[in-house]
Amino acid sequence: xxxxxxxxxxxxxxxxxxxxxxxxxxxxxxxxxxxxxxxxxxxxxxxxxxxxxxxxxxxxxxxxxxxxxxxxxxxxxxxxxxxxxxxxxxxxxxxxxxxxxxxxxxxxxxxxxxxxxxxxxxxxxxxxxxxxxxxxxxxxxxxxxxxxxxxxxxxxxxxxxxxxxxxxxxxxxxxxxxxxxxxxxxxxxxxxxxxxxxxxxxxxxxxxxxxxxxxxxxxxxxxxxxxxxxxxxxxxxxxxxxxxxxxxxxxxxxxxxxxxxxxxxxxxxxxxxxxxxxxxxxxxxxxxxxxxxxxxxxxxxxxxxxxxxxxxxxxxxxxxxxxxxxxxxxxxxxxxxxxxxxxxxxxxxxxxxxxxxxxxxxxxxxxxxxxxxxxxxxxxxxxxxxxxxxxxxxxxxxxxxxxxxxxxxxxxxxxxxxxxxxxxxxxxxxxxxxxxxxxxxxxxxxxxxxxxxxxxxxxxxxxxxxxxxxxxxxxxxxxxxxxxxxxxxxxxxxxxxxxxxxxxxxxxxxxxxxxxxxxxxxxxxxxxxxxxxxxxxxxxxxxxxxxxxxxxxxxxxxxxxxxxxxxxxxxxxxxxxxxxxxxxxxxx
Length: 588
Fold this sequence. Notes:
Layout: E1 3-8, E2 17-21, E3 29-30, E4 41-46, E5 49-55, H1 60-66, H2 79-90, E6 102-108, E7 113-118, E8 127-130, E9 134-138, H3 141-144, H4 156-163, E10 179-180, E11 185-190, E12 193-198, H5 213-230, E13 239-241, H6 246-262, E14 269-274, H7 284-294, E15 297-302, H8 328-340, E16 345-347, H9 362-368, H10 372-385, H11 388-392, H12 396-404, H13 419-426, H14 442-456, E17 461-463, H15 469-477, H16 491-496, H17 503-506, H18 515-525, H19 527-534, H20 547-553, H21 556-559, H22 565-587
Parallel strand pairs: 1-9, 13-14, 13-16, 14-15, 16-17
Antiparallel strand pairs: 1-2, 3-4, 4-5, 5-6, 6-7, 7-11, 8-9, 8-10, 11-12
């Protein structure tokens, strides 16, 4: 009989408990109270099964219909109960039927088998350690370190890829003895043997071809409406994290309409950051038309003082990875504001940008459809909007022509890496599928799952309508010229929101930036602290990043308020040092 450890973050205490599960159990019931679709981590023991479930199911009605007659009378069942019913019907194939962010582990206490599955987009995660005769599985890598047989030794290849700004190797974590179940995979552990199987994405998605652009737009709109609708809690009012950008305003508009249909007169709370000191970051000019049109309940956070590393002693750190967002103080304030507004669910427009990263293929798509005249006219418009210097340096025009000719951009060297780090980073290939770029980048899954964990500590379930499998499959199946048209990014979304969003918002082309806030912190107010951190002779980053390169990049680039890799790498070095110091403190 195999031995299992199942670790569950209670969400109430920072200490996680290890509970061995072996043989059969008569215990039944749910470890925590759970409402349908509330996105919580929960554990259930029932009739020979011990189940850990993290996340929610967005296709509950479809599952109920498929599972009849067993599901009759269970309309109010929690997601974990519905998932268990699906497991009993379909076994390991049940994960293919689930829509939504989930991570699920099932221990069959009679057969001694462990089955686990993770959602295709990776918004929830499962990590595991396989010993000589045991398996430990948890919703966070750091939780597994509580097990006495698991070493906290770091994984050098994962760290090298982190500093190379590359996707991690499949299944890796920052800890050498802890693995992560890749998105869209099933894990089966039986009689000390481990097997992984991929269930999504399929080898090839079928192409979608309509007669008119309008048909694509209508299909896209219906999918986005449904994606927002199924993420709204049935028994409470959500909040929306709304900037003035196209993605979050689209989510807010559709959520407000859905809420009005359910409860006429109820105002949707929107949480927004505003800036008095940084006009280039302030988006009130686009927020105000939204608030007026949809009668939104505006909750504004003044963010001028929330620069990175302010009050270093209370700076939040994630035990699972040497990374923290530059603007996590703003994020955490948004979660607190949502709770004050009475919401436990926060909808966002996050990762909307990643839907359209195949936009460089727009010219090839038009040519493939024989739209020669339109291709020439569009190319002329694009050239007219770009400077000759921009085209020569490889701007959108050059990229579109290159992709139309089938030329792929070569992977450039990373001059900031040490030779040893470069060798490590090159030792394992990236896991991003070549046919499915951008939207399925493993780095998205990594950062998304980390932020879900962070938000849960504030009692908030973050839900992202643009990370919907149905929407993503659609975007990956349509011609790229629907994603980008010369002069207009996110073309299909702009068309889908016509008549819904205020026109100044829908047609907005200006992109704001929070980089001045980062510069205030890292290159001004906290510069001495940063220099002290980076000066540590035994700092982790020194094994991977050349110190001479770093000294020429930081803080000069930020002081000039210029983005790019010269701003990213110094921040990663800072994060890694803070993470290392925190790990040392916790081990003392």
